[in-house]
Amino acid sequence: MLDPKYVREHVETVEAGLRSRGVTLALQEFLAADLARRRLLSEVEQLKHRRNTASEEVGQRKRQGRDAGELIAEMRELGDRIKKLDEEVRGCDEHIEAFLMGLPNLPHPSVPVGGDSTANVEMRRRGEPRRFDFPARPHWEIGEALGLLDFERAARMSQARFVVLTGAGARLERALINFMLDLHTREHGYTEVFPPLLVNAAAMTGTGQLPKFAEELFKTKDESLYMIPTAEVPVTNLHREEILPPGTLPLSYVAFTPCFRREAGSHGKDTRGLIRQHQFNKVELVKLTQADRSYEALEQMTRDAEAVLQRLGLPYRVVVLCTGDLGFAAAKTYDIEVWLPSQSASPKESGTHADAVGARGIGGYREISSISNCEAFQARRADIRYRPAPTAPVEYVHTLNGSGVAVGRAWLAILENYQEADGSVRIPEALRPYMDGQERIGKP
RNA sequence: GGAGGGGUGGCCGAGUGGUUGAAGGCGUCCCGCUUGAAACGGGAUGACCGCAAGGUCCGUGGGUUCGAAUCCUACCCCCUCCGCCA
Length: 444
Fold this sequence. Notes:
Layout: H1 4-9, H2 11-20, H3 28-63, H4 69-101, E1 121-126, H5 139-145, E2 149-150, H6 151-157, E3 164-165, H7 168-187, E4 191-193, E5 198-199, H8 201-207, E6 226-227, H9 232-236, E7 242-244, E8 251-260, E9 279-289, H10 294-312, E10 316-320, E11 332-340, E12 364-373, H11 377-382, E13 384-386, E14 395-396, E15 398-406, H12 407-417, E16 425-426, E17 440-441
Parallel strand pairs: 4-8, 7-13
Antiparallel strand pairs: 1-10, 2-3, 5-6, 8-9, 9-15, 10-11, 11-12, 12-15, 13-14, 16-17
The structure holds one RNA strand.
């Protein structure tokens, strides 16, 4: 949520910021409701003041055995008036709140302006895309041939966009999870968390999934709990409604969880393979920082996520998302995109990676991690504050989250990048300790 | 699932329908004493809205009342015992 006071005082800036994100709306509605609310409030507060002093007077008279009937009669009328005004104020509050809850965050000034992903700006590339001297195959072909994954059986017991991993495939998944958790906890200073996978509506509202994006979530029928679409939700909400004492920040958490997404509106997109599933594993990074430290934390978190790909020897690039491509809660986002030989250059992404050419298909970069600074947007919704110094007034924390990284996409990136002409897959050095030293996955 | 108990400030904990935003304690901060520290003494110490005056907040919502932390009601959450269970 945006700061109502800031919105009131910077209407033009806010409208411009929203416009750059593709949200065109006038704040007229908000300003009117806000003004009405403040008028009503000052009126009702005056009445309440009178009621308070009169109540005191009644008490005094009664104690002295004097009559208070007249005053009481007068107050009865006042009480009705107050009740009515209170209701009107509440109406305004709800209106204002509903309006603000539907607004996305404002982009940071450093974010490039643009309408869609073609305006994203590449920051850097690491690693050379491999040149294959044989026809490189997509991961679903490699995986099925090696008996690592099974979409058919998954669909039979579940639905499309689910998968069963078996044997070395399941093990590779587990190895990746452990590798990432160990890296972030041992070397990057994150505290490991294993949170609930079902959360209530308040938590979803805190991070911004609700009220606007309910159609993306799986929801339980009888309890009103939602399955998390990312660990960002429970982990960011870890400190909801808290005031963190001085010296607590920054807090850095890493969580491995499954994630569940309806993928409504993605029909026909990425239908083959592991890229887009209803259920997938992710290692998520979350930081809570002081308000003046969040942008250095964003850079650090991006480096922490990049380290995963570097250790795995996967080529990638980092892009900064333009205003039009930002997520709802984010003020600034870096995407890390891994190079996949199976990806064809979609029109949206062309121009920046067409030079990465494999033996078959052109190959392309595909998102494997997204790292965002939400500033105080989520903290305001989830009411997460801190005290900068023992006697200082409280402030909202800044929240950041980023994948460190998406496990399923790392899994398929390894299959595609480490495939051999004979159909086997080499295991990156960094993962071998997690695979009992196994160097290669071959035909069983 | 059955029976009972309870939700008050950063924490513990009092609270008769009328100076209780809330005693007392702990913690924290400032001052004094001290070479320093501890101990001790004094003072301060919630959040939200508001320029301020002032208003709001005792799990949440509704109700009774001139007036509710205190009475009624619905809901949520926590705890204990029994049953069941990974």
